Amino acid sequence: MSTHHSTQSPTATAVATTPDPPADPAATPSPRLTPRRRLAELLAGDLRALPVVAGLTVLVLIFSLQSPFFLSSRNLSNLLVQAVVTGIIALGLVFVLLLGEIDLSVAAISGVCSVLMAKLMAEAGMSSVLAVVVAVVLGAVIGAFTGSWATRFLVPTFVVTLGLGLILNGVQLQLLPRTGRYNLLGTGIEDIAGSYVTGAASWLLVVLAVVVVAGLKLTHHQRKASHGIDSSVVKNVVLPVAVTAVAGVLVVSVLDANAGIPTPVVIFGVLLAITSYILTETRFGLSLYAVGGNAEAALRSGIKVNRVKIAAFALAGGLAALAGIIAASRLLGVSVSSGGGIGGGALLLNAIAAAVIGGVSLFGGRGRASSALLGALIIATVGNGLNLLGVSTDVQLLVTGALLVLAVTVDRSVERLSGSVGR
Amino acid sequence: MTTAQADHASAGPTGAGPILELRGISKTFGGVHALADVDLAIHPGEVVGLVGDNGAGKSTLVKTMSGILRPDGGEIRFKGSRVEMDGPNAAKKLGIQTVYQDLALCDNLDAVQNLFLGRELTGPRFLGSRIKRAESESRAREVLRKLRLDSISLTRPVGAMSGGQRQNIAIARSILWTPEVVLFDEPTAALSHTAAEQVGKLIRQLADDGLGVLVISHDIHQFVVEATDRIVVMRLGRVAAEFRSADVTGEQVVNAMVGGNKGVNSAR
User: Fold this and answer.
1) Span B20-95+179-258: which CATH code?
2) Helices B163-175 & B193-208 angle (0-180, nearest 10)
3) CA A41, CA A418: separation in Å to the nearest integer?
4) ipTM of the complex
5) pLDDT by residue (tens digit) across A255-312?
6) Chain A nearest-CA residue for B124
7) pTM confidence score
């Protein structure tokens, strides 16, 4: 929800000159906010991502000072790929969390769908492309099933997906052969994680991203202008386009110095862009926020709440399946531990943590697509950086857990100061 | 006290017939008669106050008029012809809007998003029904200006606003789609005195624009007697009395609510 923040000044002055008597000042006081409250509202709105970005910057600084290898092009490329699987699952979770629901089966979906894909290729001779499509569709169908069950029988999604996750773990074990593993070498699946977009093609992606952002921001700006709404070109068009361009050039020049943009990173980028469009621009996206904010009000206003829920879970399931396929491609095979192993393990916890660290509220109604990216980056940075320093897993868990609690604490404090909770 | 009685079936302040009329409405829940043979008329340009003790049937009656409950007996007439409403959307389509006591706002959304909730202005479906933000914003501004609520921010989440501002946004939403009747359920219950006064002015403005308005309120002395044209008193699921607001005191209304002064204030 990033684009529409302007108005106030010209409309307000225009009103003052109309013959109508002004609004009763006692009853509707114009918002005169203390600086502290204003800052809190900014942090709760436009600058929501600021604390997370600051935290990420601090982490990067610490690790780059500790290890000369951290900022190398090869390591950063590695770090991004490590963030992708968690990030895509987290991206799917954003849809569900916005509703105030949760899906504890996403890791299991990613596991079972990737195993099914491997089985279809290994035992049914299915082509890799078709197997991928079947796996992703299956993920979406499982998600839709969760949504339907929860809305039909009014069972909390927490419970439905907890049970479903265990069921899918069981199915995954049944699908695997006696060796417990399908090898994916030579199937073409390994090319997803093993290939790069490089040279001219990588720069074309940057241009594409800039054009898309510019197009969206320009239409907004023009429409506002044509409706007499104040809109600053610098803030609403030039700034976002410049940020996109600089970020794009930076990322691509770093990655091209290694081998190019890893294909999983490109996939994640495209999914992020689409999700961001859905959440900020479309009616469906707004419905997610509305249901998460006040389901009863959404229902009374005519929003088909159940359909919105089913769609959100289907998207989460489909994205989880896709993440599972990318994970399988990186590991060149599927096994018992695909999908984080029994119970989802670190994969499930990291995906939820990523979304929440990135600024998605577990109570619904608040969060962005970029939350999944930022959260996944933070978790991947902690893992990658501590690995480089030779710190063992136990400390990594301590740090990730502490960051999660810290992030949510900061978030809640901002909300409390801005007055948007406690009502 | 017969002068205090309004002859409810006749013309309202504008001289037109009733825009919304209930005839002999009854509704039972299990064995309980929530509404029994209720007649009520709302004319264009008038504000009708609906009062009564807890359990008198006020909310049930409003839910019947807003299409949430279907009456067991009697008929609802809109602009003179009988209508059947099979849900809240049917009532909205006719032009009957309801402002609920809980306001039904999404605290995490801004005023524009709340005003258009469920009926967003959107572009083509192949672009995912992209919301026309600028157009919505300018229409929202228009409606708020009409209600002289220019100071309300269109871009702050409504959860960060005061109770009065939230109430005003709920009212603005009810008139966004140019209804002919607006029903208010306890609009002033959670408001300070000044904010309640302002809501009273807004409600009067709606009536001055030719809408028929019905207001449920417990605030007899401060609000109902001051801000309405006609007061309908309900007791135990029936209409117990009707008054012209100008000719009645708060005490008389309260007496009718609790069943005192029978035969003096009672309309039937």
Assistant:
1) 3.40.50.300
2) 10
3) 5
4) 0.85
5) 999 999 999 999 999 999 999 999 999 999 999 999 999 999 998 888 999 999 999 9
6) A282
7) 0.87
